[in-house]
Amino acid sequence: MTTPTTTPGYDHDDPALAPSPITPVDLDLLKATVLFGPDDEAALRTAAEVLDGRIEQVLDVWYGFVGSHPHLLAYFSTPDGEPIGDYLDRVRARFALWIVDTCTRPYDERWLAYQNEMALRHTAEKKNKTDGVDSVPHIPLRYLVAFIYPITATIRPFLAAGGHDDEQVEAMFQAWFKSVTMQVTLWSQPYAGTAW
Amino acid sequence: MTTPTTTPGYDHDDPALAPSPITPVDLDLLKATVLFGPDDEAALRTAAEVLDGRIEQVLDVWYGFVGSHPHLLAYFSTPDGEPIGDYLDRVRARFALWIVDTCTRPYDERWLAYQNEMALRHTAEKKNKTDGVDSVPHIPLRYLVAFIYPITATIRPFLAAGGHDDEQVEAMFQAWFKSVTMQVTLWSQPYAGTAW
Ligand code: HEM
Ligand code: HEM
């Protein structure tokens, strides 16, 4: 598995990270809204074990999906529509760590701060800066929200591949679905401002 | 089942409805992003049959969920926090029709126009107007996005109650999940403006 500290642009543990505008109280209300609790945390820890060793395969599926849809690949491309290989690769390495973080990190203020950073990296404020690339300026909110579906649905077979019984697989799947929904909710904040 | 034309404020077929700012081309790209296709349409038609006669029970679950969370019930309440019974009832009747529409309507320009209207009814621009109530001015985007989880997860047992086999229930569930994700995506448009 990739070591966090050697992944370019992965700043989860950077002490200089700005705090999130979202408070732990806001987060607790969001958790209640998606019914996220201790059982989900436990299920995600199990998911981390199941996904360990399968992360490159998960990323192959997701990158295959993006790569086969020009309207999505555009966001990893130059304004002229030329895919930027180095950009795709560097983001992929951070994406791998995101899967692990989703399953293993406590959802605390540091996590909130990096959630905010990841959100901004999809917007005009910070997209392209981390990797110093000349790509299109931002990712529209619509595709972030819509991605809840593929990012959730495609994980199921991988969660089922660890030999757990149906009930355990279902628990991991539900926890993943809740977490992805919650994270996209957090990432919608810079897009909506005060209406968030 | 409730007859559309007698439900106060249900304006799906109102010829005066303003067109959506979202084009059919935008919608096609969204459908591709959530992998929504003809099989999903067919599965939703079956879901309509299964849910027919169970809609009040679905609404009992959803309203029970909202009613048991003060931070959610607040949006059906006066600014002082007093729930408005008449508001809850009138929206509930329109919600019942939304379930049917989600499963049976073609997702065409008329549907897009009413999607836009429903979106606006969650925002400061139109909330409270349809029912002439004195409630809080808008629903924050965060809860719209977060609701993808409960509105999706809670439907599954109802879809399973019609005696269909596992594969058919799964197809109905996936189609529902895609549709809800797509509709919330559409509803996020007035919150994000040009960044949508
Ligand atoms: C469920 C929704 C999504 C999730 C969970 C997700 C996840 C991620 C993660 C983990 C990163 C790396 C963050 C970091 O720098 O550490 C990232 C960056 C990126 N994502 Fe997403 N993403 C989502 C939606 C999208 C969509 C719809 C697109 C458009 C095709 C997209 C394109 C990108 C791009 C271009 C970057 C690099 C941004 C930069 O310049 O720093 N993402 N995403
Ligand atoms: C998946 C997300 C959601 C869906 C599918 C949904 C569905 C609906 C539907 C179908 C209506 C009636 C539309 C019409 O007038 O015909 C409605 C209105 C309403 N919803 Fe939502 N809703 C969602 C999120 C929320 C959330 C998070 C809240 C806050 C608790 C909320 C509170 C309301 C209120 C107060 C109204 C009445 C608005 C008005 O004054 O016209 N909804 N919703």
UniProtKB/TrEMBL annotation, chains A, B:
Signal peptide: none annotated. It comes from the Bacteria. One of its GO terms (molecular function) is oxygen binding. Residues 26-192 form the Globin-sensor domain. SUPFAM superfamilies: Globin-like. InterPro entries: Globin-like_sf, Globin-sensor_dom, Globin/Proto, Protoglobin. This is Protoglobin domain-containing protein. It comes from Umezawaea endophytica. The lineage of its organism: Bacteria, Bacillati, Actinomycetota, Actinomycetes, Pseudonocardiales.
